[in-house]
Q: What sequence folds into this?
């Protein structure tokens, strides 16, 4: 197996502090510090240097991790071969993704997998995209469905394999008695003078609102904020603004709101991708999970 101390250093590279790395790895900070000291002593190099309240990897540590990333990818491929010898033993599969994707197609995909392979142990989590990458790296997730943000690892990142899954257009959500509620479609600029409801805790969603409004030629007046989609819809329902809503996201029962499709340029759209640890995609459970997610997502393609 790959040295766990290298994994600790990889996670520290992502999180920037010993405390955050320990939390991601489910270890104590003292254990993380001890592992790093051991690794530094064994390799004979200085691994870290202070960077404000955080730490920064030295050039030698960065070089070490370049090789570690290759080793980890090869280890994932090794597990593919070992799994093929397990004579049908499937094991566990951990899935995570944005809340809208979990309800729309990840959970249905997991249900199909459970029915087809009763021995498969499944774990599901609804998380934001930045957290999903951290879960993949730490081993807390095997497959993630993500909408990359500006801070997300690029497709070339040696730790992950990212594959395009689907485009998810967003609609304008307005109260049922709103002036735009009866329209077949609108251009985004037509809502420029509205008050907006945003979700600052949903980074990809807020980025999409701000970037789409900018492309349409206005800065949205974000008058209200909420942490959950149900609350956002409730604020819109009671006349406290309008918002963008994923076409995958169901509207809570009893909310008198209307989805109005957006036309023209831009049409706010989330680009959804699957992400796995590099080299792991052919492991039997992960391969089946990816195939099931892709099939269920195809059923949910917005139109």
A:
């Amino acid at each position: 197996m790959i040295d766990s101390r290298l994994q600790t250093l990889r996670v520290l590279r992502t999180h920037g502090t010993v405390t955050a790395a320990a939390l991601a790895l489910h270890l104590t900070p003292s254990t993380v510090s001890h592992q790093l000291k051991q690794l530094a002593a064994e390799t004979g190099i200085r691994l870290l240097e202070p960077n404000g309240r955080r730490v920064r990897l030295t050039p030698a540590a960065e070089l070490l991790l370049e090789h570690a990333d290759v080793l980890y990818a090869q280890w994932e491929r090794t597990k593919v071969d070992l799994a093929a010898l397990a004579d049908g033993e499937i094991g566990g599969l951990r899935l995570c993704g944005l809340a809208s994707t979990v309800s729309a197609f990840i959970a249905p995909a997991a249900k199909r997998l459970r029915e087809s392979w009763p021995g498969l142990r499944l774990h599901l989590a609804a998380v934001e995209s930045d957290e999903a990458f951290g879960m993949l790296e730490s081993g807390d997730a095997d497959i993630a469905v993500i909408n990359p943000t500006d801070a997300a690892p690029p497709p070339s990142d040696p730790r992950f394999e990212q594959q395009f899954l689907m485009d998810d257009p967003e609609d304008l959500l307005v109260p049922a008695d709103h002036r735009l509620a009866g329209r077949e479609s609108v251009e985004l600029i037509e809502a420029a003078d509205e008050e907006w409801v945003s979700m600052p805790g949903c980074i990809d969603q807020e980025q999409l609102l701000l970037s789409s409004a900018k492309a349409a030629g206005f800065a949205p007046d974000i008058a209200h904020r909420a942490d959950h989609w149900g609350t956002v819809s409730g604020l819109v329902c009671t006349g406290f603004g309008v918002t963008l809503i994923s076409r995958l996201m169901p509207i809570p029962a009893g909310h008198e709101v209307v989805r109005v499709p957006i036309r023209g340029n831009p049409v706010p759209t989330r680009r959804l991708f699957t992400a796995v640890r590099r080299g792991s995609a052919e492991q039997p459970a992960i391969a089946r999970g990816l195939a099931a997610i892709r099939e269920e997502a195809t059923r949910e393609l917005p139109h």
In short: The radius of gyration is 22 Å.
